[in-house]
Design brief:
Elements (H helix, E strand, L loop, with lengths): L1 H15 L5 H26 L14 H25 L1 H11 L8 H28 L3 H6 L3 H9 L1 H16 L7 E4 L2 E8 L3 E6 L4 E5 H5 L3 E3 L6 E9 L5 H17 L10 E7 L4 E9 L8 H22 L21
Antiparallel strand pairs: 1-2, 1-5, 2-3, 3-4, 6-8, 7-8
Helix pairs in contact: 1-2, 2-3, 3-5, 4-5, 10-11
């Protein structure tokens, strides 16, 4: 009945399509652990009258002692489980602060705090339950590990290195979830950061797990934090183009890029007639894509490039300027030394 009441109360969240309040989060966290707590001690209370039949002389009752200890273990497990689930309160609060414009907390840090608290609760709860079952004090047990603990530490050195890598990522903030990054040869979007590895979704759809130790020791290129996107290319025209047409080609490219509203105003385009190739006259084009009022995105960048290239193509056709392609001209001489 209690479980039904709690679930009925929680259905209002889905019906009203809103974020849960703190009391509702506590109710949701307490639902299953409370059922376990009631079931354990309810079963113990229901079986208590039967334990009288197993009582030995001098009041000793082994079955009652075992059942009582089992019930206490179940109750302790329910309490630890409840505390583990109630960490969601911290997740909700940190997530709300991370989305605030004035907050310095990022999604990555909020996620790691919740995971750390859950690990800490699970470890402490496990130690308490182990201590209650065996009667061994945890402090002397940990202190007596000695060389065994050193061996375990050496065996787990990779995991420890990855854990330190996670801490470094959290404090150094080279990227956040959703950023497009390039780490070594892996180019994709960060999906999640865990204690051991970071998940990156590549452009082809594959998911790559990179150890955090490798990430902090590799060069990381974060495309999401660039203020603009640089376009560098060469446009070549034929050698028989008159000088005034060459100058006109430079002007056309410059005007097309400068007049586009998504070309950076801080970095004007650079267009130069800068060299003589084997089969063409070369014009170096450097321009910076930076739309007004939003971050430069890859899709918008390629649309800008396509728009610019189509305008250049049409303008050259109207001016009679021909693009160069690989050619070879053979001159045949018919003099005394070089007869055909």
């Amino acid at each position: 009945g209690l479980s039904y009441f709690i679930k009925r109360r929680l259905r209002r969240i889905e019906t009203e399509a809103r974020a849960p309040t703190w009391p509702e989060v506590i109710l949701e966290a307490a639902c299953k652990p409370l059922c376990l707590f009631i079931w354990v001690y309810g079963t113990y209370a229901a079986l208590s009258p039967l334990f009288v039949h197993f009582e030995k002389p001098f009041g000793e009752n082994v079955l009652r002692n075992v059942a009582s200890r089992a019930a206490d273990i179940g109750g302790l497990l329910a309490v630890v489980w409840f505390i583990y689930r109630v960490v969601r309160l911290v997740d909700l609060e940190l997530d709300k602060r991370a989305k605030s414009p004035e907050s310095r907390i990022e999604d990555l840090e909020a996620s790691l705090v919740g995971k750390t608290l859950r690990w800490a609760i699970a470890i402490v709860g496990g130690v308490l339950i182990l201590q209650y079952v065996t009667g061994i004090q945890a402090g002397p047990l940990i202190a007596s590990l000695g060389l065994g603990g050193l061996a375990v530490a050496l065996a787990a050195k990779e995991s420890i290195a990855n854990l330190f890598g996670t801490v470094t990522i959290a404090f150094d903030r080279p990227f956040k979830v959703g950023d497009r990054v390039k780490i070594d040869s892996h180019d994709g979007f960060v999906e999640a950061v865990g204690y051991r590895s970071t998940k990156i979704r590549l452009w082809n759809g594959n998911l790559v797990n990179l150890p955090n130790q490798k990430i902090i020791s590799s060069s990381t290129e974060n495309f999401a934090r660039r203020p603009h996107i640089w376009w560098k290319t060469d446009i070549t025209i034929t050698y028989d183009t008159p000088p005034e047409k060459v100058d006109r080609a430079v002007e056309l490219i410059h005007d097309i890029l400068e007049q586009d509203e998504e070309t950076s105003r801080e970095w004007p385009p650079w267009i130069f007639f800068d060299g003589f190739n084997e089969w063409s006259l070369n014009m170096r084009v450097m321009a910076w894509f930076k739309p007004q009022g939003k971050e430069p995105a890859n899709f918008d960048y390629y649309s800008w490039r396509q728009r610019s290239c189509r305008k250049i193509l049409r303008s050259f056709a109207e001016e009679g300027i021909q693009f160069a392609f690989p050619t070879r001209t053979t001159h045949l001489a018919n003099d005394d030394k070089r007869q055909l």
